[in-house]
Amino acid sequence: MTTPDDTMTSGTSGTSRTSGTVRTVVVTGGGTGIGRATAAAFAAGGADVYIVGRRAGPLQETAAAIAATPVAGDLATPDGVAAVVAALPEQIDVLVNNAGGNTDFDGVPDGADELTATADVWNRNWAANVLTAVLTTTALRPRMGAGGRIVNVGSIASPRGAGSYGAAKAALESWTVSLAADVGRDGITVNLVAPGLIVDTEFFRGRLSDERRMRLVAATATGRAGTPDDVASVIAFLASPGAAHITAQVVHVNGGAHSGR
Ligand SMILES: NC(=O)c1ccc[n+]([C@@H]2O[C@H](COP(=O)([O-])OP(=O)(O)OC[C@H]3O[C@@H](n4cnc5c(N)ncnc54)[C@H](OP(=O)(O)O)[C@@H]3O)[C@@H](O)[C@H]2O)c1
User: Fold this and answer.
1) CA distance 189 to 159
2) CB distance 76 to ligand 1 below 6 Å
């Protein structure tokens, strides 16, 4: 089990920060799906990349494959975040708040009355998609300076509507705007990338039916599902020096399934 205490020595890139030009990047949810592709893109560009998730297994496998440093922990709780950030470097250049997902795919508790079940469903999506980003950013903000980049991962579910999941991603969009105003004069940008259907992730927990997949693809202008690399490349651009005057924006990556005009 990888823990925050031993990650600095167990990772493959923890010692690779040899010059001031190497950027330090933290990707939450970096062990799988969109986060893995994003972490891989940064690592391929020479960054010192840290990936965070709850499960040690996927983190360690990804870290070994892409040359990143794994840090295991639950970012939805203050104690979990505190333990994770204790294992991260003192200077962070890029924070990608990608951890999250629709917790409804994990099911709802059996036997709960309707109000209790509803509260549980909403609390879980709020914790997974909003608290993870807000708590992680709160903890790491003091380690970021001019040129810093924060990229949140939202969803097409925000404008489309998708119960507590879509509402949580809408909250993430609102917070992106206020955070951008808070940190903008310190030279830090904050944006949100909103993917549509992205395959080759664990998002659907194996529950995406062929019928629903075909319906989602049919709604695109490109006629195909998105891939983790489609999202990773946009995140990488928003984190680049050339994107210095783009902040407080929602960038849609959905093949035209929804227009963000
Ligand atoms: N795939 C899509 O179609 C799609 C569409 C729109 C938006 N998105 C968004 O894209 C982001 C990435 O999802 P994905 O599609 O790549 O699915 P994924 O493969 O399930 O990735 C989600 C990652 O978040 C991590 N995570 C979840 N809760 C966490 C917590 N409390 N603390 C730490 N890590 C946590 C998971 O790792 P552990 O389980 O090990 O913690 C996992 O690595 C999510 O925010 C999702 O809402 C996905």
Assistant:
1) 23
2) yes
